[in-house]
Amino acid sequence: MPARLGATRRCAAVAIALALALATAGCGLGSGSELDHVELTATRDYGAEQLFGRGVDDTTESDTVMRVLERSAEISTRYGGGFVQSIDGLEATRDSGRFWDWLYYVNGVEAGVGAADYELRGGEAIWWDYRDWTATQRVPAVVGSWPHPFVDGYEGRRLPVLVECLTGGNACAEVRARLKREGAVVASGDPEGAIRVLVGPWDQVRRDPAAAQIEDGLQASGVFAEFVQVGDGFELRGLDEEGAPARDFGRNAGLVAATRRYEAPPVWVVTGTSAAGARAAATLLDEDDLRDHYAVAVDGGKKTPLPLR
Fold first, then answer.
1. Angle at the Cα of 297 (from 208 to 284), degrees rounded to 5?
2. CA 213 to CA 133: how far, in whole Å?
3. What is the tens place of the pLDDT at every residue in 64-101?
4. Residue 80 sits in a domain of what CATH number?
């Protein structure tokens, strides 16, 4: 047999074997292995109105946040397809110096890359929100994807949760119980890289550098609330979408919020103007009270999503 003919036949045999292997696997080139269920939510105006919420089961390891969105809604993109311009006809816009855009979170943490570059690992909660970001473009972490990031992790890693009890008393026990109920791994020591939950009255919680960003203002923390010192104590004040003071809460008000310092994992604060306020905030740790909210205040048993409208 001529050498050239033999080589040709061997190449053909390899190609056929490869095609058969792919057919047997039931996938095409680049499709990847199947991933766990992904949650996809779209809202507007800081979560004030849910546009849709659905589970996506046909995701693979080659998927990105953008690909999942493309299969679930009518979208348009910009900047070479890396960023979302519109979802189901609701389009990013600029008007009289104000800016409305689609911004997204994965497991309650602001994404640091465009949606086309964010690769999925499975189990994520993806939240798109259309909002006026004139007051602050950066909101590094939110509470509205509870029980994420505690149950499915941060940046692809399932991290332990460290509950730091800052004279929080019964509130700490409540927080630990609710986290464990959701399946979170609550640490007993002080593991490096844990997702931290600070529990206690604000006069104690504010000593932590991550929580102290709330006192540095909306641009620093992304939290639409502030604690105002009155005498020896503090009052909780809610901010509106423009970052302006909009409501003063009562003497035992509570707050559940999240922020992030540098590139560290998010830090949640379960706090209040008093120990009673912190206990009230701890009772908000469930999906009914936190879903699709950036932060939540509680006063006299009544919850108020933040920012105020």
1. 90
2. 19
3. 999 999 999 999 999 888 899 999 999 999 998 899 99
4. 2.170.130.30
Structure tokens at 260: 């992030």
> Within a domain: residue 17?
no
The answer to whether residue 144 is domain-embedded is: no
Q: Which domain holds residue 62?
A: 38-132
pLDDT tens for each residue of 98-149: 999 999 999 999 998 999 999 998 889 999 999 999 999 899 999 999 999 9
pLDDT in tens, 245-261: 999 999 999 999 999 99
Which stretches of 2-118 are DSSP H helices?
Answer: 3-25, 65-72
* Count of beta carbons in the 10 Å neighbourhood of residue 59: 23
Is there a single domain that holds both residue 253 and residue 201? yes
Indicate if the alpha-carbon torsion angle 110, 66, 152, 45 is positive or negative: positive
The dihedrals phi and psi of 59, each to the nearest 5 degrees, come to: -90, 150
Are 217 and 291 within one domain?
A: yes
Length of the chain (residues)? 309
